[in-house]
Design brief:
F-box-like_dom_sf, F-box-assoc_interact_dom, F-box domain-containing protein, four-stranded antiparallel sheet, F-box_dom
C-alpha cells in the first residue's frame, strides 16, 4: 500500500523523501519502482509538441519544440520553448521513458533527465565508417524486466555519398547497458528487407521496443508496414504484422503508439473521412476498437493523448485535439507541418555514477 501511494508522488517530493530512511532511498533507486512511478504518473504527464513552423517566414521554416505546462491542456496558452530548458539542444530526441537523448556529432550521445536535472555523456561509439557516412539513426530505450535495469538500443544506417546510395547491408546495432556504463556491438538480424530510413521514434511496451517500419522499398502512396520489435531481456528482434487495413493506407494516414496501454494504430480513412483505432490486446491479434463519425476538413492522424483523446491535423495544417466520446474538437492555434507529440513524463531515473 505504501509503495502504491509513493508511486503517485511527483519526483520533486520523492527526492526529498529519500532522506526519510534507507529503505525508501533504495526503493526510489530501484528500476522496478522507477518503472512503476512512470506508469502511475499519467495524470501529471505534459505534452511536448514538435513541428515545423513557417508562420514567421515561409521561406525559412524552423523546427519548434513546445512544452505545454498544463497537464490537463485546459489552458493551452501556457507553453514554453523546450530548447531553452535543455542543457544541450544538439539533435534533441524524445523524451522517452522520461529521458531526452541528444546526438552530438553522431558518435557521442548525452542523456538528460529534466525532472532530476541529471546529464550524462555516454562512452563514444566505435563506428565502422566515418561520421559523414551516417544516414539515419534509430534507437529504443526501455527496461529489461528480467535483469531489472535499463538498456538503450542504437541502430546506425550508413550511405555512400559518392554513389548516393543507402548501404542497407552495413547497419550497426549497439546496446548500451546502464548497469555497467558500456556499449556492446550487437548484430544478429537481417535488416535488408526493412527500410529503416523512414522509421519514426520507438514505442516501449511490456519489456520490448517497437518501431513501425516499411517492409521493402518505401512508396509514398502505399507501403506495407510491419512492427519491428526488440525484446530487451532476450535481445531478440521479431517482426509483428499490423492489421490488414495498413496494406491500403498511405504512410501519412497512420500513426503507431500506445492507446489505453496497448499497442495501437490510429488510421485515417480517407474515403469515409473518419479515424479508426486498432489495438493489439492479445499477441498478434488486432481488434478495431471503434471508428469516429466523419470529421470534415482533416487529413492526418498525429498521435494518441490521454483519456481516449487523440491529435489530428486539419487540411489547413492546424493541430486539433479530438475527443471521440464527446466529439469535441479543440484547435491548438499552432499552424505548421510534420507534427509529432511526446509525453513529458517525470522520471526518477538517475544518470549519476
Amino acid at each position: 500500500m505504501v509503495v502504491e501511494i509513493l508511486s503517485k508522488f511527483p519526483v520533486k517530493s520523492l527526492l526529498r523523501f529519500r532522506c526519510v530512511c534507507k529503505s525508501w532511498y533504495e526503493l526510489f533507486e530501484s528500476p522496478s519502482f522507477i518503472s512503476k512511478h512512470l506508469k502511475a504518473g499519467n495524470s501529471n504527464t505534459r505534452l511536448i509538441l514538435r513541428y515545423v513552423d513557417s508562420s514567421d517566414d515561409p521561406e525559412f521554416p524552423r523546427l519548434r519544440d513546445c512544452l505545454f505546462l498544463d497537464p490537463t491542456l485546459a489552458n493551452i496558452s501556457l507553453e514554453e520553448d523546450l530548447l531553452l530548458l535543455m542543457p544541450i539542444d544538439d539533435h534533441l530526441r524524445g523524451p522517452f521513458e522520461g529521458l531526452f537523448i541528444m546526438f552530438i556529432g553522431g558518435d557521442e550521445i548525452a542523456l538528460y533527465n529534466r525532472a532530476t536535472r541529471d546529464l550524462k555523456f555516454l562512452p563514444k561509439l566505435t563506428l565502422i565508417d566515418n561520421l559523414e557516412s551516417i544516414y539515419t539513426i534509430m534507437f529504443g530505450l526501455g527496461l529489461d524486466p528480467k535483469c531489472n535495469y535499463y538498456k538503450l538500443v542504437y541502430i546506425v544506417t550508413y550511405h555512400d555519398s559518392e554513389l548516393g546510395e543507402v548501404l542497407n547491408d552495413s547497419r550497426q546495432v549497439f546496446i548500451y547497458s546502464f548497469s555497467d556504463n558500456s556499449w556492446r556491438n550487437f548484430q544478429v538480424f537481417e535488416f535488408g528487407t526493412y527500410d529503416l530510413n523512414e522509421v519514426l521514434d520507438c514505442t516501449y511496451h511490456n519489456g520490448a521496443c517497437h518501431w513501425l517500419v516499411p517492409f521493402g522499398p518505401f512508396h509514398p502512396l502505399c507501403c506495407h508496414y510491419v512492427i519491428l520489435s526488440f525484446d530487451m531481456s532476450d535481445e531478440v528482434f521479431e517482426e509483428i504484422q499490423g492489421p490488414n487495413c495498413l496494406l491500403e493506407i498511405a504512410p501519412e494516414h497512420t500513426v503507431f503508439g500506445l492507446y489505453n496501454d496497448s499497442l495501437s494504430f490510429l488510421v485515417f480513412d480517407e474515403r469515409e473521412s473518419c479515424f479508426d483505432i486498432w489495438t493489439m490486446k492479445e499477441r498478434y491479434h488486432w481488434t478495431k476498437e471503434f471508428s469516429t463519425t466523419p470529421i470534415l476538413a482533416v487529413d492526418a492522424p498525429i498521435g494518441f493523448w490521454k483519456n481516449d483523446t487523440f491529435f489530428i491535423g486539419s487540411n489547413t495544417e492546424e493541430l486539433l485535439l479530438y475527443d471521440p466520446n464527446s466529439e469535441e474538437i479543440i484547435d491548438f492555434q499552432h499552424k505548421g507541418c510534420c507534427f509529432t507529440i511526446f509525453f513529458d513524463k517525470e522520471s526518477l531515473f538517475t544518470l549519476k555514477g
